Amino acid sequence: MEKIEHIGIAVKNLAEAEKTYTALLGVAPYKREAVESEHVITLFFKVGETKIELLEATSPESAIAKFIEKKGEGIHHIAYAVTDIVAEMKRLKEQGFVLLNEAPKKGADNKLICFVHPKSAGGVLTELCQEII
Ligand code: CMX
Q1: Partners of 37 in the beta sheet?
Q2: How far is the CA of 66 from the centre of ligand 1 (A)?
Q3: Is 113 close to ligand 1, i.e. is its CB under 6 Å away?
Q4: Is the distance from the beta carbon of residue 67 to the nearest atom of ligand 1 less than 6 Å?
Q5: Of the candidates 95, 94, 101, which has an alpha carbon nearest to the alpha carbon of residue 125?
Q6: Which of 57, 87, 92, 103 is deepest in the core (most CB within 10 A)?
Q7: Closest C-alpha to ligand 1, atom 38
Q8: Is ligand 1 within 6 A of the CB of residue 11?
Q9: Whether the Cβ atoms of residue 85 and residue 104 lie closer than 8 Å to each other
Q10: Which residues contact 101 (CB under 8 A, 6 or more apart)?
Q11: What DSSP state is assigned to residue 48?
């Protein structure tokens, strides 16, 4: 893993959260993107070398809707930048980590992604991200 690429934060209302995080971070978001396959709308802020990704569910089936229902708003996942996602997935699988997708899939912000189940990663939903060049 190279660095923390972003921290994902589940929010109930993106418009409200946008105001809060713009005030908190002192910077406006640089990107808003819907990820239909995940049933979410995302909003990204840059903070130094890393990013904050706000996530609002667009459907009750979304992982974000389920998370908020159970735990409320807050940190949902930590995403790490990798240069070779397939190699990292293999490395983690061999060590017993439970991958939530068999092959990398297209995520927000021009990334190939793979999630690792929180129950196999110390209670933290973990994401691998590789920049699509
Ligand atoms: N962080 C930590 N723990 C979490 C969690 C999270 N984000 N989401 C769920 N859990 C915990 C639950 O609290 C539950 O724990 P207990 O058994 O102790 O109550 C356990 O994981 C449930 O696991 P599950 O029954 O396998 O599955 P769920 O239906 O709750 O789904 C998960 C959990 C992680 C498998 C699912 O959310 C998932 O597939 N996530 C990956 C995709 C995703 O999160 N997409 C949205 C973001 C997309 C983006 O960034 O663009």
Answers
A1: none
A2: 8
A3: no
A4: yes
A5: 101
A6: 57
A7: 63
A8: no
A9: yes
A10: 114, 115
A11: T
Report the separation in Å between the CA atom of 26 and the middle of ligand 1, taken as the mean of its atom positions.
30
For strands 40-47 and 111-116, give the pairing: unpaired
Secondary structure percentages of the chain, helix, strand, coil, to 5: 30, 40, 30
Whether 107 is in the pocket of ligand 1, judged by its Cβ within 6 Å, is yes
Residue 104 phi/psi, 5° resolution? -60, 145
Nearest to 75 by CA among 29, 33, 125: 125
What is the rounded distance in angstroms from the CA atom of residue 12 to the CA atom of residue 32?
16
